[in-house]
Structures are given as C-alpha cells and as structure tokens.
Amino acid sequence: MASRDGNGWVRCDLGHRHWGRHGAAGLLAYVAGGPVLLQRRTWWSHHGGTWGLPGGARDSHESAIEAAFREAAEECGVPAGAARWRALFIDDHGGWSYTSVLAEASAPFPVESDDDETDDVAWVALDEVTTLDLHPGLAAHWARLQAELAPVTIIVDGANVVGSRPDGWWRDRAGAALRLRDQLARLVTAGIDELPTGTGTPAMAPAIAPAVAPAGEPGVVPAGASAVAADGRRDGGSRRGIARMAEGQILMRWMADIVLVVEGAAKPAAAQAGPSPVRVVAARASGDDTIAALAGQTTGRRIVVTADRDLRQRCLAAGASVAGPGWLLGLL
C-alpha cells in the first residue's frame, strides 16, 4: 500500500481528463438545515479560485469515504469523528469516478486553511452557496446534492414484515422480531443503494452492492470480492447496462436511520435486547398508531415499510412514503 499512489492524470471512458488514478473523493460536511463546509481552491490548482469540496485523489488502498475524510483533514483541518457519513453521491465516468461523501455534523466545527491547496475555508449558509463562484463540478450537481442533505429514516412495521415470510415465525414471534432487527442492523452499517419511488429523490437503478470490510467500513471491498465498490467499479471492469448521462452515471448510497416498531409478544424481548444501531420502539398499545405517529413526527424523508392498507393511507397522509415488505426484504 503506497501513500499518494493515486496522484496522476487519467482519461475516462467518456474521453475526459481527470485527476486521480484510482478516482477521487470530496467531503460535503453539513449541519442539518445548513450550513455546509466549502473550500476555496488555491490559485494554482485546477479551477483555482473557485469554491468546492475539500478532496482529492484516492490512493489504491482507500475507500472513497476514507479518502474524503483524509483530504478534508489535510486541507481544512477537519477533525476525526467530527461528522458521520450519510450518503455517497457518485459521478461515474467509466474508469474514473468522483464520490461526494455527504457527512452530517451536529454543529459547525473549527476548520482552517492549509495555505497550500486551500486559500480559504468556511461554513456557508445553504441560501448563499449559489452566490459563490463554484467549482464547475459542484455547480453542476449542487441542486441534487442539496436535496440529498435531508436525512432518510426507514420505519418498519415489525409484525407486518415478519409475517410476510413463512419461515416459522409463528412459533417464536419474539425471536423472529429480533432476527429482523439484526438483519436491519447490517443495512445501517453498509448503507442502501435503492430507495422506493416517491421519497423526494429521482428513482435510480441500484448500482452498488453493500461491500463491507471486516472493520465495517462501507465501500471497502475485501480481497477477492467481486461486489461493486463504493466508486461504482466492479472487478474485471464489467458494469451494469445503465445508460450514462453526458457528465457520467450518477449512483447513490444512503445511510438510513432504521426504526423497528414491535408489538405483542415481541415487546418483552425488544425491551431486553442488547445494543443495536437499529432503534427498536415497543408500541404501548396499537402498533399502527405508533407507526403513524412516527411517520408524522420524524423529520426528513420517511419510508414506512408495511403492507397494511389502512396504515399505508395514514402514513401517506402524514407526508411519508410507503414501501411494501418485499422492497425491504430485497435489501437484506
């Protein structure tokens, strides 16, 4: 593993010249509702003087997430652990890709210019971003990137989803609910690459499969794996037949918060279960009432997973999107 072995120019399948022999990545750090962290590039760099994301070339051993956070630390002093990645926005040109890592912070944190690749760095209010002289790549995608800053929460009707699979759940309802919780936990760690239609983002074909290293870092493909990595590449160079847009093929991965609502016999087990990245809510009375309330109270984009017709209508009226159990089970 060689440090800086990603430095260098390459030409993508679309004939464009790009920096980064293994692709490139940048960090879009933000606070919910704004502001966002932007860097003004030094005069001698490509598109010098414009505002964009701190970032740069990926090394051969790095995931896009690792590269984005490393570059942001080097160029703008972003401290380790200051933000949590929430989505990956991948502009794949074939043979080269740029990954914008959207990372949420609880509050603006101190940053500073490295006086080498960065002339200035600042937290910028959302309504002021387009008033800046933006890097062409950021300017082209800013509207979509801004839309993706809204968090994604999946609210799961536990009884309905468990009951959709004839796997013997009726013999141990509590155990079936906990098995579902553990399966959902893997989605929180790896992220999801497909949202149902109607969730406030254009529908896109799934193009990146979860690839999780032993350490749990999304986007790192273990040696010998053939899964598509977080930059949209597949071993051997093969790729799915998805029509490319002129600027490249846009791929996404979201880190969603997952809420599992349980009721009945599953409630005692849920209360005694160990720690999990999945939030388990035990309904005090009606599970449907609890789910509908969560659908109305949760901020951002909400996806309720249920096949119950009446509950679906209640959640839609609350402003949430709805998907059937088959969509969720297809991700597990």
Please characterize this protein's 3D structure.
The chain is of the alpha/beta class and 332 residues long. The protein has 2 domains: 9-147, Nucleoside Triphosphate Pyrophosphohydrolase (Alpha-Beta Complex); 152-191 and 255-331, Rossmann fold. 25% of the residues lie in helices and 24% in strands. It is built from 8 helices and 15 strands. The chain has helices spanning 64-76, 136-147, 158-163, 173-190, 266-272, 287-297, 309-317, 325-331; strands at residues 9-11, 17-19, 24-31, 36-41, 51-52, 55-57, 84-92, 97-105, 118-124, 152-157, 249-254, 257-262, 279-282, 301-305, 321-323. The strands form 4 sheets. The protein has a 5-stranded mixed beta sheet with strand order 6-3-8-7-11. A 5-stranded parallel beta sheet has the order 13-12-10-14-15, sandwiched between helices. The chain is elongated.
